[in-house]
Amino acid sequence: MKNIFVLFIVFCALGNTAIAQFNEKPVMNLENEDKPLLNWGYFLGFNQYDFKFEYKDDLPDILVDKSFGFNVGLIGELRLNKFLDLRFEPGLHYNQRNLGFPGFDNERDAIREVKSTYINFPLLLKVSTKRLGNWKPFLVGGASTSLNLGSNEQSLDDNSSATFRMKKTTYYYEMGFGIDFYLEYFKFTPSIRGVFAINDELIRDNDPNSPWTGNVEAMMTRGLFVNFTFE
C-alpha cells in the first residue's frame, strides 16, 4: 500500500513542467478547457486489490498476498456547473491476489491464486475548487459496478478441486482526490481513489463445512487506484 502512495507522489511531482503550474503568475494554459458541456479523455494507472473477510467463528484468518495490477479506460464528463462534473469512467482492471488458507500442510490446498479481470463501470461526481493558475484540486466520489471475467461463478468445481469461485457482479462505492494540471496541449490529472465493495462476493463450496469457505461470513473487495488522466 505504501508503494502506491510513493508512486502517486512521484508522478504528482512531474518535474519542471508540472511544478511550473504553481508559479504565482503563470502563463494560463487551455483557458477554455472546462467550458464545453461534454469532455472526453482516457486514463492509465495502477491498482492494488485486497479482500476484507468476516468470519463466523474465531479461527485463524485467511491471509491475502496483494500485488500491483493495472488500469486502462475511457472518460466521459458532463459539466454541471463551474464546480461540479458528472463522470463516467468505464475501464479494464487486472489484478491477482493469492489467498493463504490455514491448517493445510500442502501448497495445493493452502494456496489459491485469484486472478481477476474486471470491467468496471463507475459513475462519479467530481467536486472541484476554483482554478488556481494552471492547477485545480478536486474530490471525487460515487458508485460503481464491475464484471469479473475470471470469477469462475458458473464452474461446478469448487476448492476441493482447486477452483476458487466468486460472484461475477460486484457493487462498490468509491471516493478519492486529485489535481488537474493544465499543460500547454492537454490537461493531465493524477488521482488516487479507494474502492469498497458492498456485497458478499464469495461462492461457497458444495460442502457447508468446507475448510476453505465454511467459516467465512462475508468476503468483500477493497482496493486502491492510482490513475493518470489525459484530457
TrEMBL record:
<dbReference type="InterPro" id="IPR025665">
    <property type="entry name" value="Beta-barrel_OMP_2"/>
</dbReference>
<dbReference type="Pfam" id="PF13568">
    <property type="entry name" value="OMP_b-brl_2"/>
</dbReference>
<feature type="domain" description="Outer membrane protein beta-barrel">
    <location>
        <begin position="37"/>
        <end position="201"/>
    </location>
</feature>
<protein>
    <submittedName>
        <fullName>Outer membrane protein beta-barrel domain-containing protein</fullName>
    </submittedName>
</protein>
<feature type="signal peptide">
    <location>
        <begin position="1"/>
        <end position="22"/>
    </location>
</feature>
<keyword id="KW-0732">Signal</keyword>
